[in-house]
Amino acid sequence: MANSADIGIIGGTGIYDPGLFSSKRETKMHTPYGEPSDLVTIGEYSGIKIAFIPRHGRGHRIPPHSINSRANIWALKQLGVKRIIAPSAVGSLQEGYKPGDIAIPDQFIDFTKKRQYTFYDGGQVCHVSVADPFCPELRNTAIDRMKKLKFPMHNKATYVCIEGPRFSTRVESKFFRDVLKADIIGMTLVPEVNL
Prior knowledge:
Blueprint (H helix, E strand, L loop, with lengths): L6 E5 L12 E4 L12 E6 L2 E7 L14 H10 L4 E3 L5 E2 L9 E2 L3 E5 L24 H14 L3 E2 L3 E5 L7 H10 L4 E3 L2 H4 L3
Parallel strand pairs: 1-4, 1-5, 7-9, 8-10, 10-11
Antiparallel strand pairs: 2-3, 3-4, 6-11
């Protein structure tokens, strides 16, 4: 397939062009769920074919609660992507998590309200386990790389996802930290992780 990729990257806030491809082309994708956040950039890095979508669109024009995650994920699937790397900008709920630290989540708590969480809209009943929501191989690779690069890292983190676009109140953050034991807070992990 001319338009194909092995790995997908969904770029978060500040990542609109990964700038790592040796050659690249942009393609407009169409899915049963509408259009993805932007054109999909397909290129190669170290011989690996990668597809890139800026989650918020170029220029950060799509707020978190309006991202069409189903279209983004479906577009990557159409390209043959088997693994997705989706970094997110988050806030810290724990004093030990400093600005610039890398947090690699192993669990999440969903406090979103209006998002499309599934591809199964009717005609079949499907229950999907998210007990271990992240690919262990990708997590271990990321952890190993961060250790080698000596980046400050937290290799187990619970991510609480809120609807946005507003930030949490102080009492909500305290609840997430003290009662739910969440470590980081953001607005984009869900529903991407479920899809």
